[in-house]
Specification:
Layout: H1 2-27, H2 34-37, H3 43-61, H4 66-86, E1 109-116, H5 124-134, E2 138-142, H6 146-156, E3 162-166, E4 174-178, E5 182-188, E6 197-203, E7 209-215, H7 229-248, E8 253-258, H8 266-275, E9 302-306, E10 310-317, E11 328-334, H9 338-341, H10 351-374, E12 400-401
Parallel strand pairs: 1-2, 7-8
Antiparallel strand pairs: 1-11, 2-4, 3-4, 3-12, 5-6, 6-7, 8-9, 10-11
Helix pairs in contact: 1-3, 1-4, 3-4, 7-8, 7-10
């Protein structure tokens, strides 16, 4: 009996190690399929499990044959390579963003809270308590439905008079609340007609205008969008627009939201290279936001990237609010001299070609779905025909409150300008 249990334990360790190696090899592929891209997420877990497999096998099961040494070496190499991928986010890695000595209430500062509230979450009071305790200048909330929109508007509407609101029941509602003036805010549907994003100028207290992009692209999943094409295309389009705008003027930019992708993924790195934005988490920790309910299965999905015009005052995860995501709070300070101390990420030779391929692939999928819909075949989601994929603007303004006295939500939207799913 003991020999049987020993053999079972041995093969369980082998199966664990080989599955970690197999997942690592799959993650090298550039396929957008959800099963392949999903292996980008658990790199920290793979480091631990592959390393544990190597240690356990060598300590308890090894007979020092070349095959067993090969297995141990393979697991160790797997753990080492995965650690290399996540190394920029460990606390002892070099920092991308310098800290400033300016106070948090400096006129040139900006405090933002980005939160996925979880549509089904009914702990409204808990969320409001946490957000109010942070005292942010801007609040970007996603997965906002009509119920959440009413709660936030009633509780925070007076304190945050500048608003962009587009609640939906499809997990992709989005609202932005600001006590700083919003300049020319836009609600856009970049790739999919039921996935909005917010783009606006923000007037700091010092009078400097910065630019904020709020995004929440749809992730790849088995039941709806089986690949990451739409998600990748949306972030790439935003990154290319930021790069194009920077050629005309040096714009201070912040991009925030639930990217539904980990910080160390290939697409996240491509976005940084294309947009030339910095990641303040590098050298400070993972800041895992999802899943807030399971400590051993957490990944950094909610991001705040910014241009090198800012230095960091504070970055933290906020307490549990009933959602499957922890809110993120970041306080930045605009400093004209900051770019000297913080070199921006540079585009590699292949980045532009890859970015264009992602956008073209999304456009082709949209065309195919449009044909299917016109022929009577009903795809799993509505097929959008989006001007952004052809490098033209797509926006709606009816659900934007650029002035404090206005309070216009998406209930009053013109459906031709802002189609609902």
């Amino acid at each position: 009996m003991s020999d049987l249990l020993f053999s079972i334990a041995r093969w369980l360790v082998v199966a664990l190690g080989l599955s970690m190696v197999g997942g690592t090899v799959l993650s090298w592929r550039r396929s957008p399929h959800w099963f392949i891209r999903g292996w980008d997420f658990p790199r920290v877990q793979i480091v631990c499990l592959a390393g544990l497999s190597a240690v356990l096998y060598k300590a308890f099961f090894s007979y020092d044959t070349w095959l067993e040494w090969g297995f141990v070496g393979l697991c160790a190499a797997c753990a080492g390579w995965q650690f290399y991928r996540i190394f920029p986010y460990v606390p002892f890695a070099p920092k991308h963003v310098e800290e400033t000595t300016e106070p948090a209430d400096a006129p040139s500062s900006l405090r933002l809270v980005a939160s996925n509230v979880l549509k089904e979450n009914e702990q409204h009071a808990r969320w409001l308590e946490v957000v109010r305790g942070t005292d942010p200048d801007l609040i970007l909330a996603v997965e906002v439905n009509e119920r959440w929109d009413d709660v936030i508007a009633d509780a925070l509407g007076d304190a945050y008079p500048y608003q962009v609101r587009y609640p939906q029941d499809n997990y992709y509602g989005m609202v932005l609340y600001s006590r700083l003036e919003l300049v020319d805010p836009e609600l856009r549907f970049i790739v999919q007609d039921d996935v909005p994003s917010i783009h606006t100028g923000v007037e700091l207290r010092c009078g400097r205008r910065i630019y904020l992009h709020g995004v929440h692209p749809r992730p790849p999943e088995p039941l709806r969008d089986e690949d990451a094409t739409a998600r990748d295309a949306e972030v790439v389009i935003v990154g290319r627009e930021i790069e194009a705008e920077a050629e005309d003027e040096q714009r201070p930019v912040v991009v925030a939201g639930d990217f539904n992708d980990v910080a160390w993924s290939h697409t996240s790195k491509l976005f940084q290279h294309v947009s030339h934005l910095l990641d303040p988490r590098k050298g400070r920790g993972f800041f895992n936001t999802f899943d807030a309910r399971y400590p051993l299965l957490r990944f950094p999905l909610d991001h705040v990237f910014h241009s090198n015009h800012f230095k960091l005052i504070n970055l933290e995860l906020l307490p549990f609010v009933g959602s499957d995501h922890f809110p993120v709070s970041i306080t930045l300070n605009y400093e004209p001299s900051a770019p000297v101390d913080q070199p921006e990420p540079q585009k590699r030779d292949t980045d532009e070609e890859e970015a264009q391929e992602k956008v073209q692939r999304a456009a082709e999928e949209n065309r195919e779905e449009t044909v299917m819909r016109n022929e009577g075949a009903h795809p799993q989601r509505e097929a959008p025909a989006h001007p952004d994929l052809n490098e033209e603007p797509a926006s709606t303004e009816d659900n934007i409150s650029p002035e404090p006295e206005d309070d216009i939500s998406s209930e009053d939207d013109d459906e031709e300008d802002a189609p609902r799913p």
